[in-house]
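re the bet — no i am not wrong, look at it urself. input seq straight from the record:
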Amino acid sequence: MSDGIGDIIMDQKRSLLNRAALRGRFIPLESLQKGFPRNDEGMILAYEESKSFVAHITSKYGKEGILRILDNMKSGDVADAAILKALSVPLGTLEKEWHDSLRRKMTWFTYLSYHLYDILFAIMSLIAIAAFIKIILRKRAYLKEEMGDGP
Protein backbone atom coordinates (compact mmCIF):
# COMPACT_ATOMS: atom_id res chain seq x y z
CA MET A 1 0.00 0.00 0.00
CA SER A 2 1.62 3.26 -1.07
CA ASP A 3 -0.89 5.91 0.07
CA GLY A 4 -0.02 5.83 3.77
CA ILE A 5 1.01 8.75 5.94
CA GLY A 6 4.49 7.21 6.17
CA ASP A 7 4.92 7.57 2.41
CA ILE A 8 3.94 11.23 2.59
CA ILE A 9 6.28 11.85 5.50
CA MET A 10 9.19 10.22 3.71
CA ASP A 11 8.63 12.01 0.39
CA GLN A 12 11.12 14.88 0.44
CA LYS A 13 9.40 16.67 -2.44
CA ARG A 14 6.22 17.01 -0.45
CA SER A 15 7.83 17.31 2.98
CA LEU A 16 5.84 19.75 5.06
CA LEU A 17 8.78 20.03 7.43
CA ASN A 18 11.01 21.27 4.60
CA ARG A 19 8.39 23.87 3.68
CA ALA A 20 8.03 24.90 7.32
CA ALA A 21 11.81 25.26 7.58
CA LEU A 22 11.93 27.44 4.48
CA ARG A 23 9.11 29.65 5.72
CA GLY A 24 10.02 29.56 9.40
CA ARG A 25 6.52 28.32 10.22
CA PHE A 26 6.93 25.40 12.57
CA ILE A 27 4.30 24.12 14.96
CA PRO A 28 5.68 25.11 18.38
CA LEU A 29 6.63 22.03 20.39
CA GLU A 30 4.79 23.47 23.38
CA SER A 31 1.51 23.26 21.46
CA LEU A 32 2.31 19.70 20.33
CA GLN A 33 2.57 18.69 23.99
CA LYS A 34 -1.15 19.50 24.29
CA GLY A 35 -2.02 17.40 21.26
CA PHE A 36 -1.52 17.07 17.53
CA PRO A 37 -3.58 19.08 15.04
CA ARG A 38 -6.73 17.42 13.74
CA ASN A 39 -6.33 18.33 10.05
CA ASP A 40 -4.29 16.03 7.81
CA GLU A 41 -1.60 18.53 6.85
CA GLY A 42 -1.12 19.71 10.43
CA MET A 43 -0.94 16.15 11.71
CA ILE A 44 1.64 15.16 9.09
CA LEU A 45 3.75 18.22 9.93
CA ALA A 46 3.48 17.37 13.63
CA TYR A 47 4.73 13.83 12.98
CA GLU A 48 7.55 15.09 10.78
CA GLU A 49 8.55 17.63 13.42
CA SER A 50 8.46 15.02 16.18
CA LYS A 51 10.62 12.60 14.22
CA SER A 52 13.08 15.34 13.28
CA PHE A 53 13.28 16.69 16.83
CA VAL A 54 14.03 13.24 18.24
CA ALA A 55 16.66 12.75 15.51
CA HIS A 56 18.20 16.12 16.44
CA ILE A 57 18.40 15.17 20.10
CA THR A 58 19.86 11.77 19.20
CA SER A 59 22.50 13.30 16.94
CA LYS A 60 23.52 15.83 19.57
CA TYR A 61 23.13 13.86 22.82
CA GLY A 62 23.09 10.26 21.62
CA LYS A 63 20.56 7.55 22.28
CA GLU A 64 21.32 7.96 25.98
CA GLY A 65 19.93 11.50 25.90
CA ILE A 66 16.59 10.26 24.57
CA LEU A 67 16.53 7.43 27.12
CA ARG A 68 17.22 9.88 30.00
CA ILE A 69 14.36 12.09 28.82
CA LEU A 70 12.01 9.11 28.61
CA ASP A 71 13.08 7.89 32.06
CA ASN A 72 12.35 11.33 33.51
CA MET A 73 8.94 11.38 31.85
CA LYS A 74 8.26 7.85 33.13
CA SER A 75 9.01 9.19 36.61
CA GLY A 76 6.30 11.81 36.16
CA ASP A 77 8.15 14.84 34.77
CA VAL A 78 6.48 16.88 32.04
CA ALA A 79 8.43 17.16 28.79
CA ASP A 80 10.02 20.55 29.60
CA ALA A 81 11.31 19.39 32.98
CA ALA A 82 12.38 15.97 31.66
CA ILE A 83 14.46 17.58 28.89
CA LEU A 84 16.00 20.14 31.24
CA LYS A 85 16.88 17.43 33.78
CA ALA A 86 18.25 14.99 31.17
CA LEU A 87 20.15 17.37 28.90
CA SER A 88 20.66 20.49 31.06
CA VAL A 89 19.10 22.55 28.26
CA PRO A 90 15.69 24.24 28.36
CA LEU A 91 13.18 23.03 25.76
CA GLY A 92 12.99 26.51 24.17
CA THR A 93 16.75 26.62 23.61
CA LEU A 94 16.82 23.09 22.24
CA GLU A 95 13.91 23.89 19.93
CA LYS A 96 15.67 27.01 18.61
CA GLU A 97 18.87 25.01 17.95
CA TRP A 98 16.81 22.40 16.11
CA HIS A 99 15.05 25.05 13.97
CA ASP A 100 18.40 26.65 13.15
CA SER A 101 19.86 23.29 12.10
CA LEU A 102 16.85 22.62 9.85
CA ARG A 103 17.17 26.04 8.22
CA ARG A 104 20.85 25.44 7.53
CA LYS A 105 20.03 22.11 5.88
CA MET A 106 17.07 23.41 3.90
CA THR A 107 18.21 26.15 1.56
CA TRP A 108 16.37 27.47 -1.48
CA PHE A 109 18.84 25.56 -3.63
CA THR A 110 17.84 22.33 -1.91
CA TYR A 111 14.16 23.13 -2.34
CA LEU A 112 14.68 23.93 -6.03
CA SER A 113 16.66 20.73 -6.53
CA TYR A 114 13.69 18.74 -5.18
CA HIS A 115 11.55 20.34 -7.88
CA LEU A 116 14.09 20.31 -10.71
CA TYR A 117 11.93 18.29 -13.10
CA ASP A 118 8.91 20.51 -12.48
CA ILE A 119 11.00 23.63 -13.10
CA LEU A 120 12.57 22.19 -16.27
CA PHE A 121 9.14 21.14 -17.55
CA ALA A 122 7.79 24.65 -16.97
CA ILE A 123 10.78 26.26 -18.74
CA MET A 124 10.51 23.89 -21.70
CA SER A 125 6.79 24.59 -21.93
CA LEU A 126 7.47 28.33 -22.08
CA ILE A 127 10.11 27.78 -24.78
CA ALA A 128 7.66 25.67 -26.80
CA ILE A 129 4.97 28.35 -26.51
CA ALA A 130 7.45 31.05 -27.57
CA ALA A 131 8.54 28.94 -30.56
CA PHE A 132 4.92 28.34 -31.55
CA ILE A 133 4.16 32.08 -31.40
CA LYS A 134 7.28 32.83 -33.47
CA ILE A 135 6.17 30.28 -36.14
CA ILE A 136 2.68 31.82 -36.26
CA LEU A 137 4.15 35.32 -36.66
CA ARG A 138 6.49 34.16 -39.44
CA LYS A 139 3.63 32.40 -41.20
CA ARG A 140 1.50 35.57 -41.04
CA ALA A 141 4.39 37.67 -42.34
CA TYR A 142 4.93 35.20 -45.20
CA LEU A 143 1.21 35.23 -46.08
CA LYS A 144 1.15 39.04 -46.06
CA GLU A 145 4.20 39.09 -48.32
CA GLU A 146 2.60 36.57 -50.71
CA MET A 147 -0.66 38.49 -50.84
CA GLY A 148 1.17 41.76 -51.45
CA ASP A 149 3.02 40.28 -54.48
CA GLY A 150 -0.18 38.98 -56.08
CA PRO A 151 -1.95 40.24 -59.32
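see?? The chain is about 80% helix and 0% strand. told u. also Confidence is low (pLDDT under 50) at residues 6-10. so pay up
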